[in-house]
Amino acid sequence: MRRSQWTIEARQDLAAIDDYYIDLNREYATRVGRAAIAAARFLAERPEAGPILTDNVRKWSVRGTDYVLLYRPTRTGVQILRVYHAKQNWRPEE
After folding, report:
1. Contact 36, 67 (CB under 8 A)
2. Which helix or strand (DSSP H or E) is residue 8 part of?
3. Domains, in order of start, for the chain
4. Distance (Å, whole) CA 32 – CA 48
5. What tens digit of pLDDT does each residue of 20-62 get?
C-alpha cells in the first residue's frame, strides 16, 4: 500500500483552513479536511494523476472545495507539500 506523507507546512495549511472555517461553517471545515485527506490517499495510489507544475511538483484540485494540493511523487507514494486556496498565488516560480 502506497502512502501520502504530509509536510509540516501542508499540515499547518490544513490546520489554518480548519481554524478559519470552524466558526463560520463547521460543516465546510470538516468537508475540506476530509476531502483533502481523501485526495491525498487517491494521489498516493496514482501519483502521476496531477499535471506537473515544475521540478516534479504536481497539482491536484480537492474535490468539492476551492483548494488545491501541491505534491511530489515519491518511491512510496506522494509527499503533500502545501494546501492552498485556488485563488491564492500558489503557482511555483519558474
Report:
1. yes
2. helix 8-21
3. 3-84 (3.30.2310.20)
4. 22
5. 998 999 999 999 999 999 999 999 999 999 999 888 899 999 9
